[in-house]
Amino acid sequence: MTTTSTDKAVQPPAGRSILPAPKYPRVFGVGRGRLVQYGIFILLALFVLAPIVPILYQSFRDRPLYEAGGLLTAGNYVKLFTDAGFGQVVLNTAIFAVGTTVLTLVIAIPMAVLVVRTRLPFGRLLGLSMQWPFFISSLILGFGWITLYGPAGFISVQLRQVFGFVPWNLYSLGGMAVTEAVGLAPIAYVFCANALRQSDASLESAARVCGAGPVRILFQVVVPMLRPPIVYSSILIFSMSLETLSVPLLYGTPVRIEVFSTFLYTNGLQSISPDYGILGAASTLILAVTIGTVAIQAKVLKNAQRFISVRGKATRPRLLDLGWIRWVAAAAIVIYIIFGALLPILGLVFRSFTMIFTPLQNPFDTLTLSNYQRVFTFPVYVQSITNSVVVAAVGAVLVSVLALLAVLVARRSPFKFARSVEYLALAPQAMPGIIVGIGFFWAFALTPGGGWVQGTLMAVIIAFGLRALPTAFGSIAPAIMQIGRELDDAARTSGADWFGTFFRILRTLLRPAFVGALILVFVTMMKEYSAALFLSSANTGVIGTTMLDLWVQGNTGSVAALATIQIAITAVFVAVANLFMKGHTDA
Amino acid sequence: MPEVQVSGLHKKFGDVTVLNDINFTIREGEFFTLLGPSGCGKSTTLNCIAGLESPTAGSITVDGVPFVDTAKKLYVPTEERNLGMVFQSYALWPHMTVEANLVMPLAIRKVSKEEKAVRIHEALDTVGLAHLKDRYPHQLSGGQQQRVALARALVYSPSVLLLDEPLSNLDAKLREQSRAWLKRLQVELGITTVYVTHDQDEALSLSDRIAVMFEGNMTQIGAPAEIYERPATAAVAAFVGSCNFFTGRLEETRGGIARVRLDNTGLVVKVASTLALSPGDAVTVAVRPERLTITPASADVTGANVLDTSVLTRSYVGSRYEYGLKLGTNVVQVISPTGNLDGDVRLVFDADDALLYAGSNVPSAEAQELMTVAS
């Protein structure tokens, strides 16, 4: 008999008595794990509903929320639809969103196929650079494009000098769609590239055995298998272009082209006596549309998972050889990267160090630091930079922790509302930033004690945090699915409760995913500004809102300087975080 | 050593019934196996005992302590049940050394440092891996990982050991040796053990008693010999060991011997039976391949049943020969020590060698299809 036995006949040797099962305290008859699960559920529900409920309420009220004695009415909607301008807004939005979606796919799908599945010169490098427009906010991208391709842009002016005319007009729906598509293409690219990497290589081998050449394999096997990620990402891109504010605001304002988001911006923020009822009604409409698209997307993805072939075996498919076409393909990708993102950003950075940026005069003659000087002489501008960093840093921690807990509850708990937790965490995907801003503004104004938060950095963190939550959730959830459920079960049978399982086992295993989420949220919140337009007071602006202010004042040099600062902060942070991650993943 | 009592266990996922009225009692120190094809509910039953799943109805008691009783709305969470469990994938925590894996359950129970060291050493010693305590799981072979998982399940002296197909990830040779080792260990420890497997050899060689499950029902509980020799249904006969099935009609039953006219040839065979059946009823005759004898057609034989057949195939499998004989449209499997038979032969078996089941439902239509030839 060994001592692991507890046979009655054998007296256990000293110090090795039978160990009693652990007992965990109960509060109101439930364990602490269940309490945390309910806590997360309620917190998420409050977080998501806080901005929506006031908007809905306002849209049916005949006067502003803060005025007493209001009546419920559908008048706001009637007014909105009979407003002559609104039909044009809807039409513009539709053209812009559809155009952006189509263009994004035209850029992203061929690139994903070429980079992942064919032998391409510098394929790895191109694949990596494909993704980096993601790190730059669309506001900055818009500034960069205007600097180069706008009516007075560097390249436009150069062309006019040579040919006498400019073959494009950036300040149009088409120009907006092209710019937005360049910015959003990395998202569609990542979806398609991941699907391609995970697809079963033997399918292609089978086609090859049947005698199919590389081009035939591409068009008859590889591309048809991409249907799920294409459908999924096109819906995502569509809903993102419905809500985007930056590019339509920058390009559309001078030529009076209005889309949904700019309509909300001008009616809610720029008008002297905003009609809150109309603002509420329009916000509700947009919410309905974006929630609809995200719901469709969720449904599509659910079905799609059935026929994405993911195998545990790592059989790397052989890359297809396209012959001379590969040089054309590589050139096309290089053109996208250089003219789409690299040149506009470099132009913007260069602009920040010059007085005047035009081919008519050698920009090196007017090198200066005065753009930066202007930013740093005004305490409000300096504060907006520190605000951005504080918001992004604090927000990254808070949002990542919340997302981690939400993932644990949604994917690793017997909690009966686990699915609801997941939907709540992903719901903000469907909530445009500007609407989140309006919603929280009203929510803080209406809730007792909300005044303490109104106008503080905390308000900005809450609003940005809500917007970043789906990103964080989406980056942690796949990581937890990689961790076998039996690891949890083993911990439970060993005596750890739900909470203990996390602290003793999952915490360490999830650390890389958590750090990944931290980086992603930091970058996302650094880019974010639209939710702050309504929420910021004079002292709580962020870089994005300050850039817009300076842009309206015509201080394009200082806008470029701020953009450069934001890019630099993001780059330094990502680099340091990556270094840190490399050093710690082995632990 | 505690007793495990499971009664009236039901489990439903939506409209699908996974467990249907499962009842059994495991005696103290017994090695009890849940055997069945995948999806039969054996793992669900084990998970209900472990508390990883909660039953829709029913109760589970271990050592007199109720773990689950749906009637009284009682449910003890997994972590408070003090059971040891080994998972199919071993579920060793990959970021911890072997020692750290074993420390965790002890740390939860707030065991003193000295006792931790003693217990861990002894648990690892039991599985013969005390020298590997500083390794990480990925540095161990599959067999070693499985033994560490076992040590982790034993280190806190659990009341019952639950094993969920622990040998299925090992390769064939190692699996056989591990089986023998596991049996010795269990006898030595005398710990009540519940074992889940779909492998009939494992079940027969390891268990004190086996419970055979099909589609959420518990079909038969008994000692290995009982399950093999007297399977309660044709399905059990087919699943545990291999078996030939012939459908036919009962002619008459006299003195415990049933005369059955086979559908495939129209021949009559005699089968020992205690079933209460009346002439004309559809029946199924089951005979295990090793209970059949083949003799050359020329030889003079006596026996209850002598059938004329011919050899279709003969394969050499090392210790014996496997024959495929043609009987009407059926292929009959026979195991024989002699390998020189060919052409026309005779198939001989006694009335006691065959089993009789009511009805003509032969298990596994697909397998039966493969065992059919044109007449």
TrEMBL record, chain A:
Annotated localization: Cell inner membrane; Cell membrane
Highest taxon above the source species: Bacteria
GO biological process: transmembrane transport
Membrane topology of this protein: Multi-pass membrane protein
Boundaries of every ABC transmembrane type-1 domain copy: 90-297, 385-577
Predominant place of localization: membrane
GO cellular component: plasma membrane
Entry keyword Endoplasmic reticulum: no
Residues annotated as transmembrane: 35-57, 94-116, 128-148, 168-192, 230-251, 276-301, 322-350, 389-411, 423-445, 457-481, 502-523, 559-581
Gene3D superfamilies: MetI-like
Keywords carried by this UniProt record: Cell inner membrane, Cell membrane, Membrane, Transmembrane, Transmembrane helix, Transport
Signal peptide (UniProt feature, chain positions): none
Family classification: Belongs to the binding-protein-dependent transport system permease family.
Protein name from the UniProt record: ABC transmembrane type-1 domain-containing protein
UniProtKB/TrEMBL annotation, chain B:
UniProt entry keywords in alphabetical sequence: ATP-binding, Nucleotide-binding, Transport
Phosphoprotein listed as a keyword: no
Keyword Acetylation: no
GO molecular function terms noted in the UniProt entry: ABC-type quaternary ammonium compound transporting activity; ATP binding; ATP hydrolysis activity
Gene3D superfamilies recorded: 2.40.50.100, P-loop containing nucleotide triphosphate hydrolases
EC number per UniProt: 7.6.2.9
ABC transporter domain: residues covered: 4-240
Cellular component terms per the entry's GO annotation: ATP-binding cassette (ABC) transporter complex
Family matches, as PROSITE patterns: ABC_TRANSPORTER_1, ABC_TRANSPORTER_2
PANTHER family: SPERMIDINE/PUTRESCINE IMPORT ATP-BINDING PROTEIN POTA, SPERMIDINE_PUTRESCINE IMPORT ATP-BINDING PROTEIN POTA
Protein name, entry field: ABC-type quaternary amine transporter
Species of provenance: Arthrobacter livingstonensis
Origin organism lineage: Bacteria, Bacillati, Actinomycetota, Actinomycetes, Micrococcales
